[in-house]
Amino acid sequence: MKGPLSFEYARIAVPDAVASRRWYEINVGLDTASTKEGHTYLRAGLKHHALDLVEDRSLPGAVVKAFGFSVESPEVLAEIKERVRKAGKPIGEIDAMQRHFCTPDGSFSTVDPTGMTLEFFIDYQVFDQPPHREENPLFVVHPFIATEKYDEVVAFYLGVLGFKASDYIANVSAFIRSEDRLHHSFAIKRAKTFEVAHICFMVKSFDHLMRARAQAIYRKVQISIDMSNHSASKSIAFYLLDPQHGPRIELCDGHRRLTPEEHATMTPRRMAIDPRNIDIWRAAEDDWHDL
Ligand SMILES: [Fe+2]
After folding, report:
1. Which of 59, 90, 122 is the last residue of a domain?
2. Rounded to the nearest whole angstrom, what is the distance from the C-alpha of residue 105 to the centroid of ligand 1?
3. 249: CA distance to ligand 1 center in Å?
4. Does residue 80 lie in a domain region?
5. Where do the H-state alpha helices sit in the chain?
6. What does pTM read for this prediction?
7. Distance (Å) from CA 286 to ligand 1 centroid
8. pLDDT in tens, 220-263
9. 132: number of CA atoms within 13 Å, CB side?
10. How far is the CA of 185 from the centre of ligand 1 (A)?
């Protein structure tokens, strides 16, 4: 059973799209691909966009509306769609504008057990050249959601959508991968209420990471979680937060990509609940910070 190829974008409703565009350009290094029909498309690397901002002036803060995933072939897309249908989930159209940035034949949307809209399609369009902006991230890596429906959500993403488990933390967090073999292109944690805990971007180097951190400190952008060294994905990261513009934004240097053999055969670890298992730079069993 094959799952989606890659996580490609989040669609985020924001109260002020111009302000949010500026925030992502300065603090995350994203580059504007285009502004069309009420959408502001922000890119990281070669893919057409990693964020799709839509303005809703009635909102007090940003709200994530949808996640988009590319799929490697029409056959795999049809298989995922059929499994979603058999699971009794709704099948709808992808966003009308998004149809311009992929091959829309066979594309579909559905809703996961948290109510989040998911869009699936083939042939996600790319640029020939990355943005000139030096601080532009290489690509968007994953969203991380928190949900009170953890067991149902994990079962849906693994059993219906076809993601594979890379690592678990006890029975409270799941790091799951798609066919691009990144350690996790989606992650889920058990919580009392739903939230998109963060969206992760991979930067070009450790120096790029530290320069972005220096900029955030200088500009007084909130660093909601400072330097962490993740055991699961082998990445070093920090997290920015401004609720006007989106969920926490994780900037990371490095993220493990499995080999094809590991992807085919690896058994997920069941890791102990201990801060040193989530961030190996934590000092002790009671040295928690909220990731
Ligand atoms: Fe993350």
Report:
1. 122
2. 32
3. 9
4. yes
5. 17-27, 74-86, 150-155, 206-218, 260-265, 275-278
6. 0.97
7. 21
8. 999 999 999 998 899 999 999 999 999 999 999 999 999 999 99
9. 0
10. 9
